[in-house]
């Protein structure tokens, strides 16, 4: 990595000294007092508070109203039917199917962890399946595909978590509506799961589940604060975190919302120092809309984001009491920045992983570099156990820890917003792509044309980094840096292309080429098309990089 990038991680900015734990506590208290499912009076009250605090300091903020598809769990029950029936407390999940008032009754079969091997050994058709673990889209999909009439998820810890089982990211398109769950699902305690298995050892057991889930279109509100930079009035970094939450949602995510207020106000106070602006968005529809708010924003402002956004910072789960473990999530070009900031602020070298299909990361199709800091409790003291439960209350926030977590984001924003050249390790993305392609050739794919282009791109980006070290960077050059990366990021993280979201299911990097070439004729046809897409994206990146290099070396 060259000096122009290293310079960003050697010295903290003065902005971090302006973070005040008392301000964060005040904001958190006002937000966390409300129960905030999306579209609820509590969420709207929290938004009103945020908007009022921003406008009191002069920060421009717009509140968008729009209709998206969301799903609110209402009630659920679970009973083991017998001469002495057993009723267990149960939760249903967002996007679960609803039953009639009498519910669904069927024989229960034990599927353990719900693996493919377990489904191959147990006949699930027409049955209720009992599965260990959190309710999730993959678990419901597996039960549905096996012909089950319902799914019962037994917790493996001492709590039952609110969850979402819809696999669709944002409001479904017509082709995706069919993928919404068609069977009901409930979650029960670990003790309930053990009691059911005890009965199963004595012979067949029948169970009955009832669910009521309110799914449909609802009007949500999305506040977005905008701080404009005098040197680049259109360019911006996007900072986002969800405003909705399960129950009072203190760490998930009232504390983050408080930090976002502080950062928006701080950037506004320092607006004359900025090389590019900042947009701060409080996303609705995170949990009961499956990232519907951030998806709506990506759809509505797609061209603006493509042309003017430099990066996306997601904030989630900060301020946990007794937090001790620092990690980060970042795309390759932002990993050095993330690692350097945590080393500088916290004195530890964090584990940095690549982003997955979660956390309002709705901007892969646009090709935005992404960064998120994580500071969590250790598992040996129970971890972040109150996540998605009624126990996520105000007392779970440590405001000194929250101030420290906020400073990580403040430092990242300072460097992304004030430096003429955004702190991106340009060649890192190409280097990572080359490693993945070389590994994929072991499965029989002929990726030599893509590998050759990737190596050319990596060499080109290394030359550009060397030229940037002594260049005068104007907004146009800064934009070209990100534009060179966008095609690589799109193909690394998104399979459906730039305009449609992938499903909310985990997949590997370079997902379009994840299939084994000998899986089927269908898979081979898919891989040919995806290889063409990869080559096209690499050609786009090379063209952008060559244009940037010409700009840098011209007399």
What does this protein structure show overall?
- By secondary structure, the protein is an alpha/beta fold.
- The protein has 3 domains: 3-60 and 228-418, Aminopeptidase, CATH 3.40.630; 71-216, Glucose Oxidase, domain 1 (3-Layer(bba) Sandwich); 426-553.
- Helices cover 39% and strands 19% of the residues.
- The chain has helices spanning 3-6, 21-32, 41-56, 116-121, 137-145, 190-200, 250-269, 292-300, 302-308, 335-346, 399-418, 426-441, 448-468, 475-493, 521-553; strands spanning 61-81, 86-88, 91-92, 104-110, 128-132, 150-154, 185-188, 206-227, 236-242, 277-283, 309-314, 325-330, 351-353, 370-376.
- Strands 1, 2, 3, 4, 5, 6, 7, 8, 9, 10, 11, 12, 13 and 14 form a 14-stranded mixed beta sheet that branches.
- A hairpin with a 4-residue loop joins strand 1 (61-81) and strand 2 (86-88).
- Helix 2 crosses helix 7 (250-269) and helix 10 (335-346) packs across helix 11.
- The radius of gyration is 24 Å and the shape is globular.
- 51% of the residues are buried.
- Residues 1-10 have low confidence and may be disordered.
